[in-house]
Amino acid sequence: MPTTLVTGASSGIGWELAKQFASGGNDVVLVARSEGKLNELAKQISENQGVNTTVIPIDLAKQDAADQLCDQLGERSIQVDTLVNNAGFGALGKFAELSTDRQTEMLMVNVVSLTRLTRILLPQMLQRGEGGILNVGSIAAYQAGPNMSVYYASKAYVLSFTEGLREEVAGSGVHVTCLEPGATESGFGDDSGMAKLGMFSSSTMSAEAVAKAGYEGYVNDEDVVIPGWKNRLMVTSTSFLPRFATRKLVAKLQDVQ
Ligand SMILES: NC(=O)c1ccc[n+]([C@@H]2O[C@H](COP(=O)([O-])OP(=O)(O)OC[C@H]3O[C@@H](n4cnc5c(N)ncnc54)[C@H](OP(=O)(O)O)[C@@H]3O)[C@@H](O)[C@H]2O)c1
């Protein structure tokens, strides 16, 4: 049975992605900091889907997290067929006022651990000529995001990195897909402060629907999956506007004063 490792599986989109992959017949490795929630999901998945589950609690903001995680996989002789880099968070506020540590941790989780995990696990996938990487970005990737500048930039990185990687491995049998959700019901809205913004709360999708679209897109080897017609419309409209206009629009929508 193939094995899928999902980061950020303790909540929201990651929780639902783990269920999708388990329903598709994958054993799952569940990764996040909240061990209790991961154990709860593992119990649900083994009862309902009957696949093997492994829980690895780890803080992906730590410098050596990706290496430690892969060491633990090695100790348990777990071969990862699919890596789902889903863990991530945002923070609404002015760059010069938000906590320096929180913004650095955001880069560690959203960018550095995602990249390092991919670098460590991809060569085995290429050798086997199967499996792949599903990276969770955001529609924030398509324009700059004043008052959330680091988050938007981190998601622009995820999209660019994923697209570049996809071309590098083309023809190898390895899938590389970017899931680009818009506003989604999960812990993200409250945690980031975005839940209080009209633009966020007016058009949320369920985490289950987002995960289903991401799973199916990955299985079908799609390059980029944007779930929901409203999100696709938003991204398409953005592409017709000059970048100075979209950033001014986002600055208005994300005005924090
Ligand atoms: N919800 C949205 O509106 C939305 C829109 C676009 C993109 N996204 C992206 O979707 C992904 C999933 O977010 P979500 O919406 O499902 O939010 P969520 O419910 O808050 O889940 C975030 C997940 O990331 C994990 N995580 C955060 N910091 C971590 C750390 N230091 N180490 C390990 N795991 C960490 C959390 O686990 P622990 O706290 O247990 O560590 C949790 O499992 C993120 O990459 C987010 O940027 C979300």
Task: Explain this structure.
With 257 residues, the protein is an alpha/beta fold. The chain has one domain: NAD(P)-binding Rossmann-like Domain (Rossmann fold), CATH 3.40.50. Helix content is 51%, strand content 14%. The protein has helices spanning 12-23, 35-48, 65-75, 100-128, 149-168, 188-192, 198-201, 207-219, 229-240, 243-253, and strands at 3-7, 27-32, 53-57, 82-85, 132-136, 175-179, 184-185, 205-206, 224-225. The strands form two sheets. A seven-stranded parallel sheet has the order 3-2-1-4-5-6-9, sandwiched between helices. β1, α1 (12-23) and β2 form a beta-alpha-beta unit. Belongs to the short-chain dehydrogenases/reductases (SDR) family. GO terms for molecular function: oxidoreductase activity. It is an enzyme of class 1 (oxidoreductase). InterPro entries: NAD(P)-bd_dom_sf (IPR036291), SDR_fam (IPR002347). Its EC number is 1.2.1.-.
